[in-house]
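Hi R.,

Here are the chain sequences for the assembly we discussed:
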Amino acid sequence: MTSTSTPTGSTPHFPVAIIGGGLSGLLLARVLIAGGTDATVFDLESGPGARTQGGMLDIHEETGQAALRTAGLYVAFRAKVHPGGEAVRVWDEKGTLVHEEPDTGDGDRPEIDRGDLRALLLASLPPHALRWNSKVTGARPLGAGRHEVTLADGTVFTTGLLVGADGAWSCVRPLLTPARPAYTGVSFIEFDLMDADTRHPEAAATIGGGMCFALGGGKGFLAHRETDGSLHIYSALRTPEAWLDAHDFSDSERTRALLLDAFADWAPQLRGLLDEAEHGFIPRRIHALPAGLTWDRVPGVTLLGDAAHLMSPFAGEGANLALADAADLGTALLAHPGDSEAALAAYEAVLFPRAAETAAMSAASLDMLFGEDPARRLVDMFTGAYDPQG
Ligand SMILES: Cc1cc2nc3c(=O)[nH]c(=O)nc-3n(C[C@H](O)[C@H](O)[C@H](O)COP(=O)(O)OP(=O)(O)OC[C@H]3O[C@@H](n4cnc5c(N)ncnc54)[C@H](O)[C@@H]3O)c2cc1C
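And here is the predicted structure of the full complex:
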């Protein structure tokens, strides 16, 4: 492995090592490198296309959009926004359309394909800033804020600033806190309907041009129309983990039967989404870190994005916060050259209260979406008549 800086003895040294090339790690690297500070991203994947990213993200003005402006990528982002993606529909389980909002083109939550956003961030970095096939297995403090990091292939390097942008199961987090994500009680079974207008016209008509919720009885469908004309659908259930452990989701026909059974009391039009599911079903257990998680300042290391504040996706804020954290940390580091402790303290002073507030909102949204009368309460939230935290 070659380092981008002068080696210390025979061990390569990286001034700033960002573990994780998700949205947060890439945006941080972009802000630092554009500001003249060297940074290197280490990711366990074999390359940028190793995994399909899937799913649409709505990017919020105060967090995600502001971060993209800080990174100088806002114009490139706008060029990739999905026209029509801000349309919203809400169905109840009986198949009654209880709410519909068109995309008027002037909303403040433009939608982008997650893969397009990641590609945009990757293209903004010089190739030497990205180290693929670099799974971090451990890190230990060396004193004076320096850390030694070990990769799965046995390679070791040192760094002056270690940033954990490595998501839900962060291997950097234990340097700061023993907290671990816990199961929220809700799981998604994810599936796609490809080429929807031609092959699945009824499903396409049900979901519409943007985001669609169908909710009732502790269950639901959360669906998006994607830029490639497919429908990306999460069937969501409040269910114990034992229910997931008991099923082999790689058996598509058994999974379809299982889900049709779980949604047996739902309107045929909504159950029809399951009838038409293709490309297999992917189970996703939704985990969260404790809301309001903080840690004492540890020299030379910090966290951002899901590594710092994994939360359920029901407030649609995780990716937005990941981008905002990265922009704030990058800005703080550039503002305190040579004093990363001052930068980390300034960053964490913003990070902790913002994450706590949003995590509480996500938890309240989960209770609302999987509680009593969810479709009506969601509509009341959209129209300002109901505050899930109130
Ligand atoms: C089903 C679902 C739907 C969601 N929908 C939305 C939404 O609509 N809106 C929204 O704002 N948010 C949403 N989120 C949340 C959002 O996806 C995350 O908050 C966001 O991706 C976090 O970004 P990140 O950079 O912190 O972590 P990640 O995107 O998880 O990136 C972590 C990176 O670290 C790498 N990595 C992990 N471990 C190691 C290691 N040991 N060594 C090296 N590399 C490692 C991984 O390969 C990955 O590239 C959703 C989440 C889920 C699960």
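The first helix runs from residue 23 to 34. The chain has two domains: 13-81+113-181+295-369, 182-287.

Let me know if anything looks off.

Best,
T.
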